[in-house]
């Protein structure tokens, strides 16, 4: 009997993942290195990483290298990690805590240059609620571009910038107003922090859809909650994003152990009980 040969994905009716480079359907990884116990139990050294990327590399688009690695790990090792990700067409980026640390120490310009010298081609900035003038932002953005890096703008609730700030939601207009100067000057993505989604409550869909309408679906990235804030909250976040904004929305802050679930979740599978039994 002749049996037609099929790939396993085709056999089970799984849709094909769009080829890279892609503007939507992106999955952004979080790489914590070795130093984040007890909050994270995943170690991502160079040997583990290469093996992991052989399996998951085609599913991933960008990766956040946490600031503790950038500031504490050997430079040559870090350069090897950056290069390894780039070999699999995954672009590492400096996240907003790197900018916050540099701002705190008054060394933002030096930090931009140092990041570029390590091999980073992307850096994430964040909402600063008027503490940084537009003139200063223009200078920093231009320095970023002059050193070959592109820009992500992340909108955070004010409490993430000022620890004593009240928990209050931002309007869609405020999010758009903060993002536009970056998109017009080197920015290519707008990250929406998961805490903003939570604070918005029942109004989240309305406000975020307004942001999407003004900025563009392909430019938006929705952030999932880190395991240190709750081991299973990421699953609720991601499934909510897919249910509300569609299976092709971009999601970030995905841990290595979560990565291979993402495409199943995009397809509409909901293996929540199976995952939760692991914890």
Characterization of this structure:
With 279 residues, the protein is an alpha/beta fold. Helix content is 46%, strand content 14%. It has 13 helices and eight strands. An eight-stranded parallel beta sheet has the order 3-2-1-8-7-6-5-4. α2 (46-56) links the parallel β1 and β2 (62-65). α5 (96-105) crosses α6 (108-118), α8 packs parallel to α10 and α9 crosses α10 (204-215). The termini are far apart. The model has no long low-confidence stretch (mean pLDDT 91).
Please write out the topology:
Elements: H1 8-11, E1 27-31, H2 46-56, E2 62-65, H3 67-72, H4 75-87, E3 91-94, H5 96-105, H6 108-118, E4 122-126, H7 134-146, E5 150-155, H8 172-183, E6 187-192, H9 194-200, H10 204-215, E7 220-223, H11 233-245, E8 250-254, H12 256-266, H13 272-276
Parallel strand pairs: 1-2, 1-8, 2-3, 4-5, 5-6, 6-7, 7-8
Helix pairs in contact: 2-4, 5-6, 8-10, 9-10
Summarize the structure.
With 279 residues, this protein is an alpha/beta fold. It is built from 13 helices and eight strands. The radius of gyration is 19 Å and the shape is globular.
What integer value in Å does the Rg equal?
A: 19 Å
Overall 3D shape:
globular
Order of helices and strands: HEHEHHEHHEHEHEHHEHEHH
What structural class do you assign from the helix and strand content?
alpha/beta
The overall strand count is 8
Secondary structure tally, helices = 13
Q: Main beta sheet: strand number and arrangement? A: 8 strands, parallel
Low-confidence stretches: none
Give the spatial strand order of the biggest sheet: 3-2-1-8-7-6-5-4
Strand content: 5-15%
Mean pLDDT: 91
